[in-house]
Write a structure and sequence with these properties.
Residues 8-131 form the Response regulatory domain. By secondary structure, the protein is α/β, with parallel strands linked by helices. The chain is built from six helices and five strands.
């Protein structure tokens, strides 16, 4: 567990409705205390990445298709930060199940998985219980 005895869950998605629904689902999870942060795009996340302390082990859910910087471009930026990558669990989220997106996952071995939108509450809880 991290320094605050809370699990940090971070959602990076440009869809405001999805961020709201995801937040409600996360807050309803009773497995452990959760600190939830939502960002409208990857640049917003990078500007405020200091919310993740050196001992935190966050779970990130990152949308592929966002304005300004795609989820893949964010992965390119993050992959050089080995310490962060090793402490984090990262899930790519998308409303598309295209083969090219699935193939792209192979370029980022640090990604823990791919989640298709809309979120299934049971799948989300299953992911959270793993860590």
């Amino acid at each position: 567990m991290n320094r605050n005895n809370k699990r940090k869950i971070i959602l990076i998605d440009d869809n405001a409705i999805l961020r709201t629904i995801f937040g409600h689902m996360i807050r309803g999870f009773s497995g452990y205390e959760i600190e939830f942060h939502a960002f409208k795009d990857a640049l917003d996340f990078l500007e405020q990445a200091d919310i993740i302390g050196p001992s935190d082990t966050p779970i990130l859910f990152v949308d592929i298709n966002m304005p300004f910087m795609t989820g893949w471009e964010l992965m390119d930026r993050l992959e050089d930060n080995t310490d962060f990558i090793n402490r984090s669990k990262i899930y790519i989220i998308s409303s598309s199940s295209s083969k090219s997106d699935q193939d792209q996952l192979a370029n980022y071995p640090f990604i823990s998985g791919f989640v298709l939108k809309p979120f299934d509450k049971d799948l989300l809880y299953e992911i959270l219980q793993k860590y």
